[in-house]
Design goal:
single chain, 3-stranded parallel beta sheet
Length: about 400
Amino acid sequence: MFRKISRIIAPSLAVVMAASTFVGMSPVHAQAKVLVGLSFSDFQTPRWPDENKIMTAALQAKGYDVVSQQANQDSKTQNDQIANMVTQGAKAIIVVANDGVAQAKAVDDAAKAGVKVIAYDRLIKTSNIAAYITFGLTKVGNGQADGVLKALGITDVKSTGKWTKDNPVNIVKLEGDPGDNNAQFFEAGQDETLKPYIDAGIVKIVARQSIQGWLGANAVTAMANILTAQNNKVDAVIAANDNLGLGALQSLQAQKMAIPISGQDASAAGCNSIAKGGLTVTILKDYRVMAPQAVNLVDEFLNGKTDPDLQKYSLASQAGDTKLTGDIMAKFLPVTEVTKDNLFDAVVVSGFASYDDVYKDVANPPARPAAATMAATMAAMAPTMAATAAK
């Protein structure tokens, strides 16, 4: 169950960056101006611009030149950009794929040219990637479902509150973009947590829809149509990220409905919504830890080393496709379930997001954390987080 997931309280971005560039420095320094590429599917997803800044700064601190591009959610554009990075002489490329299948061709071509490609957060469906780094994907889904069930007053199959076989919970599931390999694992995690309740007749999935591009606007439309089809008889929404959750919330508010809604990414907007009583739960994936680790993977590979924490997996098992062959090296990082109860500590005191962003326009917010409190938290966690980032 999700309760086993480790809680992360991370230091500020500056602390992680400083620690990662020091602790993660390879004994063999990068040769002068070796080029590394950063290829992002888009910058519409709020976290990607932040991670671009972190990785760019960390790579430059290690002595690399960096070229960074985003493809506006266009797979052909991303493939062209990756090919152009190879032409420019990039020796490694970190890729946030728009589509795990579509980007495989560009990665195969890059690998043939001797380029080390790191699949970042999203799997690229080829065994020619040098490594895959992401968070525990099914754990994300576990937490989304767990947070919603708890908000409904359901703690286990014997403690379901007002919900019974004669009065089941009607749940809508808004899944991520079908081209994103992660989406199916989030869904699998949700279904894993919901299964005992579905089997017992306590939970009923009344609608399930994938949302193209992870776009909030598409979620608004999808949720409005679902509410019409269900005559507003919906008790909760499990949305695969904050964009989708906030989109669903907009449609629900138009119908003057207030029900539990999940999200993911602990975005500023998502956390602010939780503080205001809109979204119910989001999943914090502390990219301040993952981004420096991706940079360290690049540095290790370009210096002829391998990361001891990488483990071998079959490509088929990670892609959910038995037709795929070959193995990949991967590592999976822990995640944190965030609700109103731990929002302040997990997100604000940890430095993941600012107090002003999280509690903007919130009535009766908690007192602003003292600088000394935040500094103490950051100082206490810095050695552990730096060591983790360096792995």
